[in-house]
Specification:
Layout (H helix, E strand, L loop, with lengths): L7 E6 L3 H16 L6 E6 L2 H10 L9 E5 L13 H11 L4 E6 L4 H11 L3 E4 L5 H12 L4 E2 L1 H8 L10 H11 L15 H14 L7 H10 L4
Parallel strand pairs: 1-2, 1-3, 3-4, 4-5, 5-6
Helix pairs in contact: 2-3
Length: 229
């Protein structure tokens, strides 16, 4: 573990207050028994609140050493934040040095792989695996500079994601527009794409998600089943 400074700071982002408080108890217990150094803990209960704390208001972002980020957060469309993953990507761009630990109830391998690929978090905690011991072990590992993955995610890594679906940022925005009910012919009004590129992207997505039906609903159903919506 690095030479301890007086107090570390952590922001826990989760839209369930009970979950946040539970994590706070884990922190308190570990600090009280000397397992981890002293932390100041703050909470944000929505992507909008987290955005205002981390990216917009006067508080310097570097004050936080570790951010615990829930993936399934209510959207904040004003700043194109539709999931915790979007918030994490913005955070990474703003401060690549900040430690991000993802906590999620997602267990779908495709969705987890996409989080791993796009966000490159310092830790991934699948909530079905999560207990006080693994939570504290994650903090200690990340402070030491080593990534920490809970049991479910580690198993997926060992299996090397035999079939990983990855959506880049353009594709993610495209899928969201379709999901919002925007017709394919109107996509060029929202993205700098030609009609031919729209159709090409739909073909690529059908191939990625093994969808033979050309119906947009079938494509979105497959994407949702894979954990991306």
């Amino acid at each position: 573990m690095p030479t301890p400074k007086k107090t570390f700071r952590s922001l826990i982002i989760d839209d369930h207050e009970v979950t946040c408080r539970g994590y706070g108890v884990f922190f308190e217990n570990a600090m009280n028994n000397g397992t981890i150094p002293k932390f100041q803990i703050d909470f944000a209960y929505s992507s909008e609140e987290a955005y205002n704390i981390l990216l917009r208001q006067g508080k310097p972002i570097h004050e936080y050493d570790i951010v615990f980020l829930d993936i399934q957060l209510p959207p904040f469309p004003e700043h194109k934040i539709f999931t915790g993953e979007d918030l994490g990507i913005m955070l990474r761009k703003k401060n690549p040095e900040i430690k991000i630990i993802v906590q999620t109830s997602l267990s779908n391998n495709h969705a987890l792989y996409n989080i791993f690929y796009t966000l490159n978090p310092d830790g991934i905690l699948v909530k079905t695996d999560l207990d006080e011991d693994s939570f504290v072990a994650c903090i200690k590992s990340v402070l030491d500079g080593s990534p920490f993955y809970s049991r479910t995610f580690s198993k997926l890594l060992r299996n090397q994601f035999t079939k990983g679906y990855i959506l880049d940022q353009e594709e993610r925005e495209f899928v969201r527009l379709l999901y919002q009910g925007i017709p394919s012919k109107d996509i060029p009004n929202h993205l700098p794409w030609s009609p031919s590129k729209v159709e090409k992207k739909k073909r690529i997505l059908r191939q990625k998600f093994d969808v033979e039906d050309k119906n947009t609903f079938s494509l979105l159903s497959a994407i949702r089943e894979a954990g991306f919506l």
